[in-house]
Amino acid sequence: MSQVSMTVNGKSASGEIEGRTLLVEFLRENLGMTGTHVGCDTSQCGACVVHVDGKAVKACTMFAAEAEGANVTTIEGMANEDGSLGTIQQAFQDHHGLQCGFCTPGMVMSAAALLADNPNPSEVEIRDYLEGNICRCTGYHNIVKAIMAAAGHDVSKIAAE
């Protein structure tokens, strides 16, 4: 067992872990941050995406010890200071970018990383960026629409599929 410390959503967090503890396990089991989902256990679905030092990372592919001293942001950290939904979260709600909600945390975190790198992405760029995230419910159309809205695009002329 070893000790790990990091900043999670702006707050200091630490815990005792085994060397094989994945970041997603540490977040969920040690810190109780269950918004980061475990979907496939093979790093294919993207439900576990978090930001580590500003970079989108699939938390099931990273050991918690690798995040020692890092700044980690989870879906819980995407809300506004007053607890209301952040811009991307609100866009997902407004444009029905979720159904069952299982993939939503990873989609929101991926969208945030995309918009940080490219504040004005095209529909094609959004679809390309989301290639590592799987949604089995929505058909992606409204997810893409929500991300476009969060980027400030006028989505009123986008036809529903």
Automatic annotation (TrEMBL):
Enzyme class, spelled out: oxidoreductase
Annotated keywords: 2Fe-2S, Iron, Iron-sulfur, Metal-binding, Oxidoreductase
Annotated EC: 1.2.7.4
Cross-referenced InterPro entries: 2Fe-2S-bd, 2Fe-2S-bd_dom_sf, 2Fe-2S_ferredoxin-like_sf, 2Fe-2S_ferredoxin-type, Beta-grasp_dom_sf, Diverse_Oxidoreductases
Protein name stated in the entry: Carbon monoxide dehydrogenase small chain
A Pfam family the protein falls into: Fer2_2
Species of provenance: Roseovarius aestuarii
Ranges for domain 2Fe-2S ferredoxin-type: 2-78
UniProt GO molecular function: 2 iron, 2 sulfur cluster binding; anaerobic carbon-monoxide dehydrogenase activity; metal ion binding
Gene symbol of the encoding locus: coxS
Top-level taxon of the source organism: Bacteria
